[in-house]
Amino acid sequence: xxxxxxxxxxxxxxxxxxxxxxxxxxxxxxxxxxxxxxxxxxxxxxxxxxxxxxxxxxxxxxxxxxxxxxxxxxxxxxxxxxxxxxxxxxxxxxxxxxxxxxxxxxxxxxxxxxxxxxxxxxxxxxxxxxxxxxxxxxxxxxxxxxxxxxxxxxxxxxxxxxxxxxxxxxxxxxxxxxxxxxxxxxxxxxxxxxxxxxxxxxxxxxxxxxxxxxxxxxxxxxxxxxxxxxxxxxxxxxxxxxxxxxxxxxxxxxxxxxxxxxxxxxxxxxxxxxxxxxxxxxxxxxxxxxxxxxxxxxxxxxxxxxxxxxxxxxxxxxxxxxxxxxxxxxxxxxxxxxxxxxxxxxxxxxxxxxxxx
Length: 357
Hints:
Layout: E1 5-20, E2 25-38, E3 41-47, H1 51-54, H2 58-72, H3 80-90, H4 95-113, H5 117-121, E4 128-129, E5 132-134, H6 139-151, E6 156-160, H7 165-179, E7 184-188, H8 195-205, E8 210-214, H9 222-225, H10 230-233, E9 236-238, H11 245-254, E10 259-262, H12 264-267, H13 270-283, E11 286-289, H14 296-306, E12 312-315, E13 328-330, E14 332-335, E15 338-341, E16 349-351
């Protein structure tokens, strides 16, 4: 079995509704797509680079995918581990491009073996609820958005914060009043706080039943969190502070965070994500699996590896819900706010476009 060709291309995809986080407002996304062919079988991959988090620009991602296509040509896709480590050596500064290739290889191998990727990795969970994101907006608008998501069956909300802690606390308080105590609330300041703002947030929300807070301080500020009680640190989740395996090891040494948010676009794909998951499992760290604005292809890949880790506790895999169009279907099924893998071999995705070299 040999890879005989690799297709890569770029798409500009608008979002159905803009959303705002502490750093910026998003109205569209630049996505990249990969098809790895080995005879009659092909594997699907997609990349969503985030220059503000990993430094990988769309231009860098495009260049890396061109290089990856050459590196993968003629290789045996069943040697996924070997191929992924070669991509890591050659394309170290392009994790999203590597992630797209990695998931395409897993999809290809799963189809060749007629098995879902999650079963090849070792399934631990049948399904888990995902959060959906309420962006930074006026309080009344945020409350209305929360109500809309509840009407759609979601029971976990992630509320974006980070521009004004006073407004953040008021927004959370109003949302909690509106949704009641049974809805899980998570928060994400996207590194928009300093230590003083974090203290105000913790004091202002202590009676709101917040499940956890994701990345309150900028990457590199982890030492400031060590002044917090261990019980509070246990309910903080690292995102921008944990990009790869080296970061995970560094954070485990000091434990400023009790939860790691793993994203394939940060760490480079299914294979490196599984290495971090094994490390977290051994250290007793809970895992959340997150995403950027992404295609169903990469959301499905994240779901497959997430459901294969006993350390997985939380999903935040809503990144494809607001795409005005996607290039694939399948990959996952959503019911009552829970995600499960779709039937079928590999990642279970099907292309909606017919593209050939």
